[in-house]
Design brief:
The structure holds two protein chains of two kinds.
Chain A (H helix, E strand, L loop, with lengths): L2 H13 L2 H27 L2 E7 L4 E3 L2 E3 L1 H13 L5 E5 L3 H6 L3 E4 L3 H8 L5 E2 L9 H5 L2 H11 L17 H38 L1 H6 L3 H5 L5 H33 L18 H55 L6 H4 L4 H11 L4 H27 L7
Parallel strand pairs in A: 1-4, 1-5
Antiparallel strand pairs in A: 2-3, 5-6
Chain B lengths: L1 H8 L5 E12 L2 E12 L3 E5 L6 H8 L7 E6 L2 E2 H9 L2 E4 L11 H11 L4 H14 L15 H15 L3 E5 L7 H16 L3 E5 L3 H7 L2 E6 L2 E7 H8 L5 H10 L2
Parallel strand pairs in B: 3-8, 3-9, 6-7, 7-8
Antiparallel strand pairs in B: 1-2, 1-4, 4-5, 9-10
Helix pairs in contact in B: 4-6, 9-10
Classes of the chains: A alpha/beta, B alpha/beta.
């Protein structure tokens, strides 16, 4: 069993390369830098939230109801002991539009709310995402609840939003979409990282690296079994993919620890109900299968096309599929378009999401079979390339 | 462990390696045509031929890196096809190019390939140190392989081949790129290995290697064996009374 010997050598070769250490440390440092830097900026100057409340309120049975004022009161109470956030009163709509981070409660806010039980307020936001939807468009109770208890306003970059009114059932759907988005977005991003980083390890320890070292002849003339050679490369790619993801997670974890007592504690918001053993296994499946597929793809190319061509065409092909996967998934991580369905890197992503959200069992099985078939075909191509002696010829 | 495996393989045949009617076609090009060879045990056999004659292909077939298109190969008296893995583990190969991982040290490179061939480092440590000293490599043993000179890398590859090949060495240009001192020492070591009973198949364009070491000579040309015999026989055939070098040149020129 020479697999252990091959693995130790490949790991040693990989992590002795400065480029590899750099590619692992660099993202971690960047994340920490981006995550921690604002803290220092914040401590020097408090984060400002502008408010323009024009709510006229209503009178019902001789009693006055003004939800705008109630929201302001709640905000003031919440932020009373928080030096890092400062509320700034705005006097005109123009001021509101030009303010970087502000909330606007229109004149008919309470009236509409009382009539429809759903009302709209406005935020100057630079970004709109699924997570923000229910906050912008929730019922009055939800608005106050979110603003007061979750303190989401400081972390939502503001921009103007059109007026929207949702029914309760639609709001419920938005809540589901919120959970799905919270999982799907980071998963798509991590999958993208694995595809990029795992494959870069193959340029450093794959068969083209063996050729670069002129070691193919020696390896093949040793007692090592061909399949062990392929397996070793696959495992190394998976380890490197994991190392990359861990570098990112470590970076986020450090940022979270540093931010523990601050209002940025929702930097990584994954709904707690989604953190289950099954879901963690589904995510591990995603990492492993993506690493395997991408590395198998590159190894097959390296074996079929030689040192130069393998890296060139293999990397280009992989990059195209990866970018297609990421671009289509990040546009809408819950979609399933034809261009995604024909991309093998999309299959593990979809399987993981289906498992996490417990849906589309038939589709999941089909994707699993497709992954297995594709992986087997790539393995056969590699084994045959070695057996058919292509491995020795450029 | 290796010796036991070798004993199992060894037959009473007087040949360490036999090729019977071996042909090889790669991408429709006929590389070898009906090659018949018997490499005798305990001798240095030189495999010679002009560029493109089929030397490397022959070596790769013996190592079971390539499968013959037709014909049979026997190594240690056993059919290669059925015993490929076991046979490979008993052949020490020095490839034409210097092989090694540049990030690892020279010693780590050696340890890796020894482990890969199931050789316990402790069993060969003394032999290794002795050879490192003889080839003046002790000082560079812990240097990264990528920082070794071409000659140092070559000498290291030679040590690797000797340690792995307990009975059979295949050496492709063993002294190319070496300084004179190391080349002389390597020739001495090859001679000692043969005296201790090992067989050597060597490809070399260095005439000193051939004059000092070659006992049998195989001349390949355009994928065919044009002459095979002991050195005197070859010399007498191609250049009676002349130098070995002249005989080889004439052999290469002959149609």
């Amino acid at each position: 069993m020479q697999l252990k010997v091959l693995l130790i050598k490949d790991l040693s070769s990989l992590f002795k390369q400065k480029a590899v250490v750099f590619t692992l440390l660099f993202p971690m440092i960047i994340i920490i830098f981006i995550g921690v830097l604002p803290l220092f900026l914040q401590s020097a100057e408090p984060f400002e939230i502008g408010y323009l409340i024009e709510d006229d309120g209503i009178t019902i049975d001789n009693s006055t109801l003004n939800l705008g004022n109630d929201i302001l009161l709640s905000l003031n109470n919440t932020l009373a002991n928080d030096d890092s956030i400062k509320l700034v009163k705005l006097d005109t709509y123009d001021e509101f539009i030009s303010f970087e981070n502000a909330i606007y409660i229109p004149g008919n806010f309470t009236e509409v709310a009382n009539y429809t039980r759903v009302a709209t307020y406005y935020l100057t936001m630079s970004d709109s995402n699924i997570r923000a939807q229910p906050i912008m468009t929730g019922t009055i109770v939800q608005i106050i609840d979110k603003v007061v208890t979750e303190k989401l306003i400081p972390v939502i970059p503001p921009k103007i939003e059109g007026e929207q009114v949702f029914s309760e059932s639609e709001l419920l759907d938005n809540g589901v979409a919120k959970n799905r988005g919270a999982i799907a977005f980071p998963l798509a991003y991590i999958a993208f990282l694995i595809l990029i980083m795992g494959s870069s390890s193959m340029r450093l320890t794959g068969f083209s690296a063996e050729r670069e070292a002129d070691m193919m002849e020696l390896l093949l003339s040793s007692v090592v079994h061909r399949s062990e050679m392929i397996l070793s490369k696959l495992i190394i790619g998976v380890i490197y993919g994991f190392a990359t993801v861990m570098a990112y997670i470590t970076g986020f974890a450090i940022v979270l620890i540093v931010n523990f007592n601050t209002n940025d504690s929702e930097l990584l918001t994954v709904p707690k109900e989604l953190i289950t053993v099954t879901n963690v296994l589904a995510i591990i499946f995603l990492f492993v299968s993506l690493s395997f597929l991408s590395i198998e793809f590159l190894l097959a190319m390296q074996l079929l096309m030689g040192k130069e061509g393998g890296d060139k065409f293999g990397s280009s092909g992989l990059m195209i599929l990866t970018i297609l996967f990421y671009a289509t998934s990040i546009a809408d991580p819950l979609a399933e378009t034809p261009i995604q369905v024909i991309n093998p890197f999309f299959w593990p992503f979809k399987v993981s999401l289906n498992i996490i959200f417990k849906e589309n069992l038939v589709g999941t099985m089909i994707y699993l079979m497709a992954i297995f078939a594709f992986s087997t075909i790539l393995l056969l191509i590699q084994t045959r390339a070695i057996e058919n002696e292509k491995v020795l010829f450029e | 462990m290796i010796l036991e495996s070798y004993k199992q393989l060894m037959s009473t045949s007087e040949y360490i390696c036999e090729l019977r009617n071996v042909s090889k076609v790669i991408n429709t090009t006929q590389i070898l045509s009906d090659v018949n060879l018997n490499i005798r045990k305990g001798r240095v056999t030189a495999l010679l031929g002009p560029n493109g004659a089929g030397k490397t292909t022959t070596i790769r077939i013996i190592l079971s890196l390539l499968r013959p298109s037709s014909g049979e190969v026997f190594v240690f008296g056993k059919e290669l096809k059925k015993n490929a893995t076991q046979i490979r583990g008993n052949i020490g190969l020095l490839p034409q190019r210097n092989a090694g991982y540049k990030q690892l040290t020279a010693l780590d490179n050696l340890k890796f390939i020894l482990k890969l061939n199931n050789i316990d480092f402790k069993d060969i440590e003394d032999e290794l140190i002795a050879m490192l000293e003889r080839l003046n490599l002790m000082e560079v043993a812990n240097k990264q392989f990528g920082k070794l000179s071409g000659g140092e890398a070559r000498a290291l590859g030679f040590i690797r081949a000797v340690l792995i090949g307990k009975q059979f060495l295949i050496l492709d240009e063993p002294t190319t790129g070496l300084d004179i001192a190391r080349a002389v020492e390597i020739r001495k070591i090859i001679q000692e290995e043969v005296n201790s009973g090992k067989s050597v198949l060597m490809s070399s364009h260095v005439i000193t290697d051939l004059e000092e070491l070659a006992q049998d000579i195989i001349i390949l040309k355009k994928g065919r064996v044009i002459k095979f015999g002991d050195r005197e026989e070859i010399q007498t055939h191609f250049s009676p009374g002349g130098k070995l070098e002249d005989a080889i040149v004439k052999a290469f020129m002959e149609d």
